[in-house]
Every structure is written in structure tokens, then in C-alpha cells.
Amino acid sequence: MRELTYVARRTLEWREAPDPRLESDQQAIVAPVAATTCDVDSMIIAGHGFIEPPFPIGHECVARVVETGDSVTAVRPGDLVVVPWAINCGTCDRCRAGLTAHCTAVPHMAMYGAPLGGNWGGLFADLVRVPWADAMLVPLPAGLDPVAMASAGDNWSLAWRLVAPHLKRVPGARVVVIARGSIGLYVCDIARALGASDVLYIDPEREHRNLAEGFGARTAEELMPDEKGFDLAVEATGRVDELGEALESLVPEGFCESAGNHFRPGELPLLDMYLTGVTMRIARDNVRVHLPDALDLALHGDVDPGRVVSGVYDWERLPEVLTERHRKPVFVREVD
């Protein structure tokens, strides 16, 4: 089989790899049919990552099940499924506590798309082995488009987690989103659908702001000093200075969710945070836990994740298109 490999800055190529095989009766082999880039993939391809190439890339896809072990009961060959980015067993103490991104059955940081916690391959591949199929794979509900939901295994479900629990805790909350890619746009769509009284989206990209306005958000190129009093701030830029701005925009005891990958160090307004009593969470996402709720919102809620997709491309064009700058390209192929 082939797997897309990140070779150097803005350089990707197909490389041959052995076909994955079932190694236990709990496993499955899947074939991605609609795959897309996470916001962090774009940073890696642009040369801003911290892992030396080469390595297989890609960790967001909807796939078709090709083969299952004898003990697998949740899915069967032919099913369309969402593949979560993090490898997890579903039965260790951490998995049972909902910490599926911190599974103790695998090395720390085990994931698709980067050689952290072992080499599990990437989801821009012809075939992928899923080590615990019942724990990891989530059937795509009938009625959802695989292209629109290609990001469900990470960014879409992460966006749900960034805002939905807070709006349940504080109905009608005011939300500010400081972002550069798909995560922030998904957050705008979800926040409006779940009843946020005000959504302000900050992004220098005019095209992104137009999309956010279509989701009902106010927009600006930068966060002005007089924009304060938000119950929730979401930062998804990877820029520490903008994380600091998000923190300073909150009401007392407000909450900041940081979804940016901060590859560079920086300073935060710690004294202001102390005096205001804000809470900040910066964490890799336990996506498998809330993936069903995120899919349910996509199916039944007043949301439209497909609007964030910036283009649909043939699978064979992956090495070519990903070297260019795109917001959320989706790559598709037919798999029987």
C-alpha cells in the first residue's frame, strides 16, 4: 500500500509500506474515503513542527471498514466510520475515566499522523490498522456526508468540546474566538447553534471572517482593548500573545480554552489572570469521549460543518495540493 509521507518543508510524497494486517481479534483494517488536514498539519507542512521528517502524516478521516477481527462487534466490513486521532484501548483506568488521549495501554502521545508514542502510520494512507476497533471506531450516522464530517475525528469534535459544555453551564454566554483555521470556524457555528448571546471572531483573513459572519458571528481583524466581558475565550492560533489577549478579555472567573499548538515559548499575563480568577485549559483532546455528541449535533443541530470545507480533491492529488495553502481541503476516493 501507499502512505503519504512528510519529507521536508512543503514536500510530501507517496511511499510504499507493507499492507497492515490484523494482529489480534480486537482489531480492524479500514480504508480512508474522505480525509482532511488538521490545523496543526498545515503548520507541520509549512515547516513549523518540532518532529524531524520523514514520517506518515494525516489524522482526520472518515473510512470504510475493510476487515475486522473475530471479537469486534461495534462495526463490520462495509461500514463508514470516524477514526479518532488518538490511539486508545477503551478499558484502562484512564480510558474508563474519559482520558482516551492518555491511554496507558500505549506509549504517551500515541496517535496517527506523527511518530509520537510509536509509529501508528497516518490517515492519508490506502489502508490503516485500528488496534482496538470497538473502543475507537464510531459509525458515521446515516444522513451525514463523509466530506462534511472528514474532520470529526479531531477538529469538529474538538470544537464541540471547546464550547458546548460551557454553554450548558452558562446559557447565553458571550464567546470570543481568536483563530486562524477550521477549529475557530467550527466553534462559531456550534456556539451560535447552542445559544451563545454574542460570538466575536478574530482573524486577519477576510475569507475566514466572511465564513464566521455567515455563522452569525461578529468579526474583526484583531481584538480591540475595549472588547471585554466574555464568559468564554477560545484561542486556536498557537500564538502566545493572542492567548494572552484571550485571557485578558474574560469576565471574572471566566474560562479560556486554548486549542492552539504552541511550538514557541512566550509569556502569559499571570498577574491579571490571578486577579481575575480565570481558568485556562490547554490540552490535547480526548476526542473519542465526546465524538458521539458532536456527531449528534451535526446530524440534528442547526449547524453546517460542510461550509468550512475549502475544496474537494481526488485522492491522487494529495502530495500536490497539500504543499499549497488551504483552509480545509478534503481528499476523497471510492472504496468498495
Automatic annotation (TrEMBL):
Alphabetized GO MF terms: metal ion binding
Domain named Alcohol dehydrogenase-like N-terminal: residues: 25-139
Cofactor(s) needed for function: Zn(2+)
Pfam families assigned to the protein according to its UniProt record, in alphabetical order: ADH_N
SUPFAM superfamilies named among the record's database cross-references: GroES-like, NAD(P)-binding Rossmann-fold domains
Swiss-Prot/TrEMBL keywords: Metal-binding, Zinc
InterPro entries named among the record's database cross-references: ADH-like_N (IPR013154), GroES-like_sf (IPR011032), NAD(P)-bd_dom_sf (IPR036291)
Designated name of the protein: Alcohol dehydrogenase catalytic domain-containing protein
Organism of provenance: Glycomyces luteolus
